[in-house]
Write a structure and sequence with these properties.
Helix 1 runs parallel beside helix 7, helix 3 packs across helix 6 and helix 4 packs antiparallel against helix 8. The protein contains eight helices and no strands. The chain has 207 residues and is an all-alpha fold. It has one domain.
Length: 207
């Protein structure tokens, strides 16, 4: 695996984690309600769920490349279209981006971790996003170690981002700054997702 592919995985996984949604809402709620420890527990449990999705996705796609090249091309093409659609949606709704936060509720450390894990595992968008992203990055020459590195990257990036959110929200005032910057995150995400989709489509066409 080249450094460029790994960096692409880092950037796209980071932008996926930054996008507003139920995962961010749960991390924020548990941090604001109970403190930074609960927020970090939620973050890393969520990352475990994301990492499992990534692991299953990378090894599953690797099997398709080896055994059913035609099926992999179909999956990768659908993934490119999905990423392009996500990118367009991000650009269209960037001005509407918000950080959703539900009402505070008391959570133990275990409850916070369990909620973080379940919100990742039971959210079909996490699986779709993982499939779409890694179908654009995997190549037949990649080894099992490369697949594990990509899955580990998704796990680490997700956990570090949400841990940083929890740490920042442990101090007053940062939530306002995050809210103000979310439209910028959405715009940058949209552009990068469209570029990744275009690169993946080009690779499929030209080999």
């Amino acid at each position: 695996m080249t450094l460029a592919v790994w960096l692409s995985a880092c950037v796209v996984c980071a932008l996926g984690a930054m996008s507003p949604g139920p995962s961010l809402a749960v991390v924020i709620r548990n941090t604001v309600s109970n403190g930074g420890r609960e927020g970090v527990a939620t973050a890393w449990a969520h990352a475990v769920g994301v990492g499992l999705y990534a692991l299953a996705t990378t090894f599953g796609l690797a099997a398709l490349i080896i055994r059913y090249r035609g099926v992999f091309v179909v999956v990768a093409s659908a993934g490119a279209l999905y990423l392009a659609w996500l990118g367009i949606q991000s650009l269209r709704h960037a001005g509407d981006a918000e950080i959703p936060v539900r009402e505070p509720a008391t959570r133990s450390l275990f409850d916070a971790a369990r909620e973080g894990f379940l919100i990742a595992c039971l959210n079909p968008k996490v699986g779709l996003f993982s499939l779409a992203v890694f179908s654009q990055l995997l190549t037949p020459s990649m080894r099992a170690a490369d697949h594990a590195i990509l899955a580990g990257t998704a796990f680490a990036v997700d956990g570090l981002w949400y841990s940083m959110v929890a740490a920042l929200l442990s101090h007053s005032g940062w939530i306002v700054l995050l809210r103000r910057r979310m439209h910028m995150v959405e715009r940058v995400s949209g552009i990068i997702l469209i570029l990744l989709a275009a690169a993946g489509a080009t690779r499929l066409v030209w080999g």
